Structure prediction request, 443 residues.
Amino acid sequence: MTTAILGAGLTGCTLARLLAEMGEEVVVLEAAGDYGGLCRSVTMDGFTFDLGGSHIIFSRDEEVMAWMRTTLGQNREERHRETKCFYRSRYVQYPFENGLYDLPPDDRFRCVDGFVRAVIAAELAAESGEEAPARTFLDWIYRTFGDGIANCYMVPYNEKIWKYPLDEMSAHWVDGRVPRPPLADVLRAACGLPTEGYVHQAVFSYPASGGIEALVRAIAAPIEDRIRCGFCVRSVRREEGRFLISDGKTTVVADRCISTIPLQALIPAIDEVPPEVADAVGRLVYNGVACVFVGLQAPVPPFSWVYLPEAELGYANRVSFPSNYSTGAAPSGYGSILAECTYRPGDPVDTMDDAALIDHVLDRLEAMGVLSIEDVVVTGVARQPFAYVVYDLAYQESVRIVREFVAERGVDLVGRFAEFEYLNMDGCIRHALDYVRGHCRCA
Ligand SMILES: Cc1cc2nc3c(=O)[nH]c(=O)nc-3n(C[C@H](O)[C@H](O)[C@H](O)COP(=O)(O)OP(=O)(O)OC[C@H]3O[C@@H](n4cnc5c(N)ncnc54)[C@H](O)[C@@H]3O)c2cc1C
Prediction:
């Protein structure tokens, strides 16, 4: 049994390793000149940056977390998450609802008042039996956090990252997954008593050297010789039960085909796609991310990363400080910054050239007091067209149509843009593990 895996990002490399450990023949076909996908990193003058945006290693999934730790071995450091939201020229503890004490008093009142009203409204609805799940993401935000937290932070931040009307986004992916914070925690936070949200992320790991790419390199090490880079999959056909996969020059023959590449790349490679499937894949919404890298001959604020909800802070929705992630991420005594700006095709970030985007980010970071331009020693930009799945209201129907079609053609889907799900690295590894356990005869 030979398995062809399309795409050598984290998911493709994990699948290849797990299948090879089961004794299977695998070949991994990757369009780019190197493997790693969103988990690639670059080192410039001693500063290492993650090309797909700042990545940290964390998980609630203990098996996956243990697997990542073991795979990285000694090349791993741990840090306490120190995360903020920059709001009205001040740093507010993250999650925002745990940082209300850091707000000006008028906002603190608005946020507590709105939150208490939201809790009461939810309890009354539950008692009367009229509780219906939120349909839109906007509705979910207001119901979960109340109008104070919604208007100060949740709405502007989410508008900035998703670049999509929040009342046209579905609530299904957050409803039930992100619980309303306990009232007592929010009240404690507003009174200045310490509380911590998102505790599964409170301590995170990061490679001591090599950036996040070190993780995917460690995973791929035993199967590196089975990865064919520069192979852009353009056609996937089935003949007599076997898959013929071609880049237009050579054809690879396999018994099984697992795709980890975006559906937007896979569907055009399949022949005789019905119009309703082509339409459905065309309706799937996603964002790209432009990452601006800055190396400084000066330290950076003592934070892991900072969310930037306000439009005045420019296009970046988040800035992280990789030099605070591990000792090898920047030369000793120097600091580094990675600013993420999501974009949609044709919007200002997409059309801005790299030099203008760097100037824009440096200008806003200097205005925030994060850096002085004269300390900047390294800059760079990397753009990833496939960064975030956007869950619009048509998502569930569109993705169902596409998945059913792909299943009929016998191709299996695993990974962030192959399944078209908001999967983090741990989710990708979990899906790869489950796939191998469910499909491999030797497992
Ligand atoms: C800004 C940002 C921050 C993130 N931060 C974190 C974090 O802190 N922690 C975390 O756990 N996760 C994080 N993630 C998520 C993480 O990056 C993904 O879960 C993971 O990298 C997805 O891996 P993948 O292999 O499924 O997809 P990809 O990495 O997208 O891999 C797909 C591969 O397919 C290749 N490909 C595409 N088309 C073709 C074709 N036609 N033929 C052949 N190959 C092709 C691509 O080149 C790529 O190598 C973050 C993501 C983003 C965007």
Observations:
- The chain has a mean pLDDT of 96.
- The pocket of flavin-adenine dinucleotide is lined by residues 6-12, 29-32, 37-39, 52-53, 55-56, 232-233, 260-262, 265, 289, 340, 386-388, 415-417, 423-426, 428 (CB under 6 Å).
- The domain at 2-37+214-284+392-439 is CATH 3.50.50.60 (FAD/NAD(P)-binding domain).
